[in-house]
Design brief:
- This protein has helices at 30-35, 81-114, 124-162, 164-167.
- It is mainly α.
């Protein structure tokens, strides 16, 4: 048995089931055929969208696991040099990703707002200038995220410079051959 479809058969203007270049109903049910959903635009194509939200709550207690941190980068535990390096590297990676995302969002927002209808008595150039002013703030936020990434690298460099003597392995004194005696 062939697969079933929820879409009714498409018929042309002459009723024979074939669509020709001049037929007005050629794309009438394209939205229903493609996604099974026709939005407010009538025959416009609307892709199906699925949103999954997974929330895991770990209270720790019973299993003896680590408590979940309230920090995005995890709990800042600076017990050794590896902890400092890892924290700075994770901070740098997070801020670089945020700066890229903010820069892209600024460009998209500027393009989107630049296509909006101008206010009464306003020309297209003024509309684009208003869009640029708004998007500039997002661009500045991206620049701040880039600066935060640079400062995370600088923080680790300063840590290495200032605490280099503690990070070098120190020669251990040999145990004395004459232990203390009463």
């Amino acid at each position: 048995m062939a697969g079933t479809r929820n879409v009714p058969p498409q018929t042309g203007a002459n009723g024979n089931g074939r669509n020709r270049p001049g037929d007005s109903t050629k794309f009438a049910n394209a939205g229903a055929a493609a996604g099974g959903f026709v939005g407010a635009m009538g025959g416009a194509f609307v892709p199906p969208v699925t949103v999954n939200i997974n929330r895991t709550q770990n209270n720790g207690g019973a299993r003896g696991g680590r408590r979940q941190s309230q920090f995005i980068l995890g709990e800042p535990e600076f017990n050794n040099t590896d902890d400092v390096r890892n924290y700075c590297n994770h901070l740098r990676a997070l801020m670089l990703q945020a700066s890229i995302e903010l820069a892209m969002a600024a460009k998209i927002l500027e393009a989107r707002l630049g296509q909006s209808m101008p206010l009464p008595g306003e020309n297209v150039i003024q509309t684009k200038m208003r869009a640029k002013k708004v998007a500039w703030k997002l661009k500045r936020a991206g620049d701040g995220a880039t600066a935060a990434a640079k400062n995370a690298v600088a923080a680790y460099a300063a840590f290495q410079r200032e605490y280099a003597d503690l990070m070098r392995p120190r020669p251990q004194r040999a145990a004395t051959t004459n232990p203390f005696k009463f």
